[in-house]
Amino acid sequence: MTDDEDHSNAERKMQFLFALRSKGVTDARVLTAMEQIDRGPFIRGYFSERAYEDMPLPIACGQTISQPSVVGLMTQALKVTNRDKVLEVGTGSGYQAAILSQLARRVYTVDRHKRLVTEASEIFRALDLTNITALTADGSFGLPDQAPFDRIIVTAAAEDPPGPLLAQLKIGGIMVVPVGQSDAVQRLIRVTRHETGFEYDELRPVRFVPLVEGLGRDG
Ligand code: SAH
After folding, report:
1. Which ligand 1 atom is nearest residue 90's CA?
2. pLDDT tens for each residue of 115-138
3. Percent of the chain whose predicted confidence (pLDDT) is above 70
């Protein structure tokens, strides 16, 4: 790498972190994780040049990798600690799971498209992110074999927080999920499970692809 390339990479990284901060991502651990995990490898082909812009981008199987600031805000809302076992529903590119892997003890991530799971697993292996397990499954049923979870993050929009996911959350656990009709702007909800029941906080408007039942045709 030439000095010039080195310089422009450093500048791009600074702008990326600045954009995150200006959109409200202020948690130091989350910012460090997002500094450490390069978004580039998670975007293949034509759009890879735009990896450092704060934009959602298309990935395989007609899905999208979320906007970095939304990844940051959702991760921040999840309040992950290094003792936590986390479930992500909607692996997509694997970027969100990679960020979580820096903050949690263990990350399970599931997607209904086998191709996305295979491609994300290859990136996790290449980056030596050994605390992530990616599986092909319909995440609306959670992951009963590994339940309960300290944290659950859903990165596709559900009409309501899915019952099996609520049931797989530990007491004291937190789930972040976009809720609403798939063709409209949805509300990002944080659910906290207390001994006595569930507490719901509405965080912000978001736009996600829908949570779809069953496996994709490729998986
Ligand atoms: N978190 C991803 C972006 C997710 S896009 C990233 O960081 O790139 C939403 C993903 O949810 C898509 O890949 C889609 O296939 C997946 N999805 C939709 N419904 C699902 C379901 N019922 N179970 C598992 N995955 C699902």
Report:
1. 11
2. 999 999 999 999 999 999 999 999
3. 99
In the predicted structure, residue 152 carries a pLDDT above the cut 60: yes
pLDDT in tens, 8-29: 778 888 899 999 999 999 999 9
> What spacing in Å lies between the alpha carbon of 92 and ligand 1's midpoint?
5
Answer whether 179 contacts ligand 1 (Cβ < 6 A).
no
**Cβ within 8 Å of residue 47, ≥6 positions away:** 57, 58
pLDDT score of 1: 63
pLDDT at 73: 97
Ordered domains of the chain (ranges, CATH): 3-206 (3.40.50.150)
Give residue 3 CA to ligand 1 midpoint distance, Å: 39
Q: Is the CB of 14 under 6 A from ligand 1?
A: no
Q: Model pTM?
A: 0.95
